[in-house]
Amino acid sequence: MARKFGEIAFTPEVQAAQTARGSRETYERYIANGPASDTLTPKLEEFIAQLDGFYLGTVSSNGYPYIQFRGGPAGFLKVLDEKTLGFADFSGNVQYITVGNLSGNNKAFLFLMDYRHRKRIKIWGRAEFVEDNPALIERLQVPGYAASVERAILLHVEATSENCPQHIPIRYSEQEVETIVAPLQARIAELEQRLSELNSDANSASGVRSME
Length: 212
Known about the structure:
Layout: H1 3-9, H2 12-21, H3 24-33, H4 42-49, E1 53-59, E2 65-71, E3 78-81, E4 84-90, H5 97-104, E5 107-114, E6 119-130, H6 134-140, E7 149-162, H7 174-211
Antiparallel strand pairs: 1-2, 1-5, 3-4, 4-7, 5-6, 6-7
């Protein structure tokens, strides 16, 4: 169990709920003996590099959470160093709720999901948007992706946590399905070609017999 995760997620109210339901002692032991898990390890970086989307959570000034899906080509969420993630903020519906929320409260949360391998990662941190740094925006730009970049968003990592795969459904993206099906389609095409050749040979043989 990640220690920093427990320090952030296990508020007094959560601890009271755990105590009332009998799990507090177990979690106290896990947190006391667990690693900090407050940096982006090479293993996490590898996981992040293959994602084509994630969920970003911020907090509004009226106390409500705001969850938004962010999508793009695989790898558009980038590890800049062991404590910092960054991504290009593409043009959208111009509501600017995330930007507004971060202007008043920089606490943020990323929920990273890999449905194919039934794996999920939670990341807590402090986020900021950057609009006046062309070099940073260029670093986060996705070559060949037809989307306008309005700004960069950075997340300074405070805690990470990996969940168990229980109850996660297995799902495949369109690209993953195409990759899986491609060999089957190639085999079908090969068999169809072979069948066509056999039919052609059979028709030729039939024509020869008719002439005889």
